[in-house]
Amino acid sequence: MDYTNEMLLEIDSQSRNESFARMVVAGFVAQLDPTIEEIADIKTAVSEAVTNAIIHGYNNGPGKVKLSCRICNHEVFIEVTDTGKGIEDIEKAMEPLYTSRPELERSGMGFSFMEAFMDDLKVESKLGEGTTVKMKKLIH
Amino acid sequence: MDKQERKRKNTTVMQLREGVKADFEIVNRCLVVKLLEDLDHHNAVSIREQSDKLITGKNIKDIIFDFTGSEFMDSSGIGVIMGRYKKVIFTGGKVAVTGVNHSVDRIFRLSGLYKIIHKFETIDDAVKKFNNN
Ligand SMILES: Nc1ncnc2c1ncn2[C@@H]1O[C@H](COP(=O)(O)OP(=O)(O)OP(=O)(O)O)[C@@H](O)[C@H]1O
Ligand SMILES: [Mg+2]
Fold first, then answer.
1. CA distance B32 to B38
2. If you compute the radius of gyration of chain A from its CA atoms, what whole number of angstroms results?
3. pLDDT higher than 80, residue B3
4. Could you give the count of Cα atoms lying within 13 Å of B101 in the half-sphere of its Cβ?
5. Do B45 and B20 form a contact (C-beta atoms < 8 A)?
6. Ligand 1 contact, A101 CB (< 6 A)
7. Is the ipTM of this complex over 0.85?
């Protein structure tokens, strides 16, 4: 039998909720007894995805960010969803150092960090409809 | 007891300092930013504004970001440090980070920022190095 456990969180698109989101996920994943490094990896990836939803998806305006976190045996599946403006060219957006907002001092490293710190990263997006970032990590 | 009074009674020094994201100190022409919170998008805004006010107002040459009181940084922090670097580089200034923990160090390494900024154990080490040059 598989062990599963799931958590859903919906938060307003406000920057003060970024630290809350990563703390909640870190707290939920704690049941798998991850290392300090694994927790740091997950916190960074969640922070990047939620920050992107707020800055890019909703252009720092109002909206809701949905976060789902599912544990299946030793794997963690995290999804971050916004119903904001969406991404026109996902491949280009995921290129290291690509940013559409250099004037906001963004440097285009968010997706690179998500990719580096998680075992799998998938981005689904539709212009005008929103974006979902799906990430997976095996806790050893 | 009204609410206001009750609140005041429970206020500790820590609570009085709530919302303070960093302490700023100036040693010679070096700005020391002692971070007290996570360097994420939420905290980046005020740290950036306060730093920039001092950089232009106090004729700052070098900057030290001290992470002793900050455990977490993401790409927003990279943006803050890169942005300040761009401000001081034209006048021959340097940027250093101190007191970084393992996970913040990994972010710096992965970002390639150590090619342009320096890392020291303590603020003193960085100040000494900068003043000698
Ligand atoms: N949720 C989203 N909605 C709309 N566009 C997005 C979203 N997430 C990312 N993007 C687009 O993808 C680009 C790259 O994202 P990435 O996180 O890698 O860099 P950044 O956010 O621009 O900079 P950094 O993360 O380094 O601060 C963004 O500049 C933006 O154009
Ligand atoms: Mg980003």
1. 17
2. 14
3. no
4. 14
5. no
6. yes
7. yes
**Both structure tokens of B86:** 């761009």
Query: At residue B5, does pLDDT exceed 90?
Result: no
Residue A111 to chain B, least CA–CA distance (Å): 10
pLDDT, one tens digit per residue, over A16-57 is 999 999 999 999 999 999 999 999 999 999 999 999 999 999
A22 C-alpha to center of ligand 1: Å? 18
Number of domains in chain B: 1
Which of B67, B73, B7, B69 has the alpha carbon at shortest distance from B43? B73
Task: Answer for the pair B48, B86: CB distance below 8 angstroms, yes or no.
Answer: no
Report how far Cα B58 is from the mean position of its chain's Cα atoms: 16
Which domain range does residue B11 map to? 3-132
For ligand 1, atom 2: residue with the closest CA? A57
* A106 conformational bin, left if phi > 0, alpha if psi -120 to 50, beta if neither: beta
Radius of gyration of chain B (CA): 16
The CATH number for B25's domain is 3.30.750.24
Residue B56 token pair: 């232009």
* Ion ligand 2 nearby residues (CB, 5 A): A 52, 110
Written as one letter, the residue type at B69 is G
- Which protein residue's CA is at the shortest distance from atom 20 of ligand 1? A108
Q: What are phi and psi of A82, to 5 degrees?
A: -125, 160
pTM of the model: 0.94
d(CA B5, CA B9): 6
